[in-house]
């Protein structure tokens, strides 16, 4: 049996240091500019592609780290650099995971390379699930996919919203309703290949934070995709729908709510992003508190400041431990009997919001200006309690898992 350790092995330390170097030397210096421009930082993504950070291979390597720490370590370092730019770099991964989780080997081999492009011609991908009336309530999704048997094509109609890279992606992965009676069990995922007629970008959102990451509506009007673009294939879908119909007859309510608990394994990755942002703000605040002099001494000499820093660091470390535990559980196949994945995302995202706000306070007037990075970090941190399930939804999942009760 493996000895218990929280120490990273030599390979992990090497990857962590390499990522940290990229975050420090390439991402950080570009952060303020792309935040102001509110545009996708294509040159930075290209740099990441050149060194191998923007590629499926890199994420696959981290994903298959047997300790489970590869992905959280990578996310923490990149998001320590800057959340908006890092999301532009890892956003394609959301769509890639959608294909890896549900696609056939042929679909994986065909579409994932087109999601990333190559270092000379980088591309991005988008995962489109949320809709104007279906955010937390995924079962209310309205985008329809109807099968045209004569042509072996699926026809997609609807409007997606909040899609990271939506409209600028080379490949879009779109979740749509194939059987409206089955709630979230009646959904299926489709590839929309590059240049498919009928897919267009709607509104591009001007956001509070992570402004270097493109977020937009995606409009689908009679979008026709070949039968081969249904992820997993038609036979698998038909079998899955038949099973869901059987279960729905027995217990309709449980089918309707199942979607909320299906992200336990991916949520720790978002927790790790939050830890990265929180750590970045804490480090700026610690440095500032040591050097800023008021009343003839560094402000850290005041317990009121020093204790805040002590709490910040304690909470960041606690958040990281929850993230690492959940990631280890996911990789080693441990059942999430207490919704440990949701716990890690809930705690880390709340810590990021709190710690970045405290960092502004410790920097005083400077913290409130764009001369220092903590106000950007605080704006960025607000996303973590919203996407991949809001804090309230995490609490709902945890409370339901612990109690076994259908808490509303
Ligand atoms: C920058 C950004 C990027 C995103 N990227 C993507 C993406 O790439 N792809 C994608 O598909 N989606 C994406 N999203 C969408 C994101 O996942 C949703 O915003 C999120 O799931 C919340 O949905 P909503 O915004 O509709 O809020 P709502 O569901 O309307 O929630 C509003 C408020 O009500 C609360 N609430 C709702 N239901 C309950 C309940 N049952 N109990 C208690 N409180 C409740 C929520 O917690 C929240 O506080 C992104 C969003 C943002 C902002």
Automatic annotation (TrEMBL):
Annotated SUPFAM superfamilies: Acyl-CoA dehydrogenase C-terminal domain-like, Acyl-CoA dehydrogenase NM domain-like
Domain Acyl-CoA dehydrogenase/oxidase C-terminal as annotated: residue spans: 258-402
EC class: oxidoreductase
Acyl-CoA dehydrogenase/oxidase N-terminal domain ranges (all copies): 10-115
Pfam family, one: Acyl-CoA_dh_M
Keywords: FAD, Flavoprotein, Oxidoreductase
Cross-referenced InterPro entries: Acyl-CoA_DH_CS, Acyl-CoA_Oxase/DH_mid-dom, Acyl-CoA_Oxase/DH_mid-dom_sf, AcylCo_DH-like_C, AcylCo_DH/oxidase_C, AcylCoA_DH/ox_N, AcylCoA_DH/ox_N_sf, AcylCoA_DH/oxidase_NM_dom_sf
The enzyme's E.C. designation: 1.-.-.-
Family statement: Belongs to the acyl-CoA dehydrogenase family.
Protein name per Swiss-Prot or TrEMBL: Acyl-CoA dehydrogenase family protein
Protein source organism: Streptomyces coeruleoprunus
